User: What shape does this take?
Amino acid sequence: MDIQRIGVVGCGLMGAGIAQCAAEAGYAVHVKEADETLLAKGLARIRSAWERGVAKGKLTEQQKAGFDTRLHGTTAFAALADCDLVVEAVPERLDLKLRAFAELDAVLAPTALLCTNTSSLSVAQLGPALAPARVPRLAGLHFFNPVPAMPLVEIVRTLATDEPTLAALRAFVGRLGKTAVLAPDAPGFVVNRLLVPYLLDAMRCAEQRLATTEDIDTGMKLGCGHPMGPLHLSDFIGLDTMQSVAEVLFEAFGEPRFKAPSLLRQLVAAGRLGRKSGAGFYGWEGDKRLEALPL
Ligand SMILES: NC(=O)c1ccc[n+]([C@@H]2O[C@H](COP(=O)([O-])OP(=O)(O)OC[C@H]3O[C@@H](n4cnc5c(N)ncnc54)[C@H](O)[C@@H]3O)[C@@H](O)[C@H]2O)c1
Assistant: This one.
């Protein structure tokens, strides 16, 4: 399976990162957004990342121009008709994803591969939007945020995903300069299934006054060599997102370690959502972490 042309549906936080990395890796990339305004915003996000690269001396003007010639924007699914692989990155709603997959299925060649960047939905649940013959070419490609900086992609196989599809996706991830791990189509895949209970446990420790917010974070950062502590990371992810991910995992597995702690619910109810709202476990000024706030 020779992948040359990549389609990306949704040019938000994740879609823009995926399109950026694919264009940098030499692929022709066609990005589809919902309307012209959102498309312009998404493409500007990618181009400003390249401009920052030039300003910092990490990219030459010539490299930036080369990336740009491979990046194409559209608001029509039909413009993705020649793509060999399409990665869907629309918001985390099953109805939106099913609609996008049905539209894609109608225009793509029968050989094209279709992937979703979902973090919490079942990949197999998207199968009914496709012609039965394409279901073996459906998989998850779970990128991590921020996409250009994070070196991992989980390739999520359903029970129907075939071997040539997995091999083609491994090759695609490798050409992006990233490492793939194979994950089952089960909630949390591999990384979040292990990470989320750890973050929730850190909140339970804070709730039980085991140690201060700063000491929990410093302990795990310096004691385990993590780049940031668990409460800092939770603020970074967003406490509302943490709560909804915990609910999905608790619903799926029923184990107490996946249950959202009462402290998390209280913080979310108080509008302390982490970095995005300026307050969570810590105060935030944009990306700058301030003092820990009282709990
Ligand atoms: N944000 C994260 O940290 C993260 C990490 C891994 C995976 N994900 C998953 O990636 C997906 C996208 O998340 P995001 O954070 O980039 O969301 P986002 O809201 O930043 O971007 C989604 C984009 O999709 C666009 N869109 C909606 N309907 C569309 C349509 N029909 N056609 C084309 N574009 C359409 C929206 O206009 C928006 O720009 C979700 O499934 C999410 O669960 C997110």
Observations:
- DSSP finds ten helices and ten strands in the chain.
